[in-house]
Amino acid sequence: MKILVLFLFTMNTWAALPENPSVITNSDTLKERLKKLSSTENDSKKHTLVFDLPVTYNQQVAKWVQYFQTKGSKWFREYLERSSKYLPFIQNELSKAGLPLDLAFMVMIESGFSTSAVSTANAVGPWQFIEGTAARYGLRKHWWLDERRDFRKSTKAAIKYIKDLHQEFGSWYLVAASYNMGENGLRRQIQKHKTNDYWTLVRKKALPDETQNYVPKILAAMLITKSPNLYGFRFLERRNPLEYDYVSVPGGTDLESLADALGVTRKSLKELNSELLVNYIPKQIASHTIRVPLGAGKIISEFLTKKTN
After folding, report:
1. How many domains are there within the chain?
2. Which of 5, 22, 173, 265 is most buried (CB neighbours < 10 A)?
3. In 150-196, where does DSSP find H-type helix?
4. How far is the C-alpha of 15 from the C-alpha of 18, rounded, in Å?
5. Do 300 and 175 fall into the same domain?
6. pTM of the model
7. Number of CB atoms found within 10 A of residue 44's CB
């Protein structure tokens, strides 16, 4: 169920929120608390925001809100600007799957929406799949192809994974924690400490440092992205949502030559097909479906016809 929340506060009011853990699941309680906090503010604005994940604001979340506003503001601004390109697609896929749209902010923290992101643990792509989990959820990897980098396919795989995690753990915070640290590790800690409350596990230091910070980072990113002006992120350069056509091309097709024929940059065509680890379709592959700019199908058909003649 989506939670409609009326925010009546300024940045100073937001900073005055209590630091003790407080899970907000009742919109009436939240409105009353924020109304009291903002009653002395003459210039406060009314912001209507919709959250479909439980909203927690505590010391851990506040720390990351402040970090994203200060030391991390440069790269967080880049993530915000990039989000306008990718969030609509991810949230549409989550919606079709009946999952909370705010789970899309996992990608912002995992990779900053980068298809080429690689972690120290060799997790790859926007959803940061390791090889074993990727294979389990149908993502292929060959010397010329890594579908973990494919935004569409990795999102669909992540949705299947998230559904399985939620079926076991039943809490969206624990879903995020298990996604970050692995379900086996989280399962052991739940059994050891006899609790399935994320914040209790954090207080007991039962989770790795990265996982203790993972949910607070997601919540901080979610809060800022929904109202960037409030947090000082103004004049963002919005990008057009990801749009493309699919075209099947034969083995041996060179993407750089194709980009030249389309009149687009080689980099932009590479970004549309970031799952390709090389700039061509291997000759031994009968055909492969690639993404091309919207409406480019006719030009590609003519290009391929000339190439074969």
Report:
1. 2
2. 173
3. 151-169, 172-181, 183-193
4. 8
5. no
6. 0.82
7. 19
